[in-house]
Request: fold
Amino acid sequence: SAADDVVLPFKNLVNDTYAKDISIKVRSSKAVKRRNGDFVGPFAAYGYCKDPENKNQLIVDEAVSEYVQMIFAMYKDGFSIGRIAARLNQMGVLSPMEYKHSAGVKFDTVFKTGDTAKWTYKAVQRILTNEVYIGVLAQGKRGTPNYKVRIVQPKDETEWVKVEGAHEALVSYEDFMAVKTMMKRDMRCSPDQDCLLYTSPSPRD
Reply:
């Protein structure tokens, strides 16, 4: 009918304006929290968990934090990323993805024997390059261009919101930077190679 021809476009306009308004408010709210160093992500990085008393604050996950520290220590000691992943699998430590799935029964499921929950080169590499472990909260790495576009896309690092000292560090700044320097030098080893970073008298297993 003629009335519908007038009403429907008006309703669509109102709905669109409402959706835009809500989107702007949500984005603004999250932006303020990010700048304040509040954690607004759905999942904490491996080695951390959300504080039960404040979901916007990360605290150390005592069940697995030692494995993060072990990864950094081993790499600094000359072990390749592939060798570190192999050692964690040998120990039966749950990979970050499997550990996340097991959340809620942490201490019973930190270890697993079987053919699943394997650590990979990428999983170890992600830990060694994540500033979260020196207390830096970097957020806003991905997002949608606007309220109409639902596709989440990665953002340029210049657009990330970084806050230092947002939570307790698991590794020192000096160790993190030392590892970063070593990783730049170690571009000779491909992900599937089982090699040490530097030549040593014998493999240290």
Summary: The longest strand covers residues 54-60. Strands lie at 48-51, 54-60, 137-139, 142-143, 153-154, 161-163.
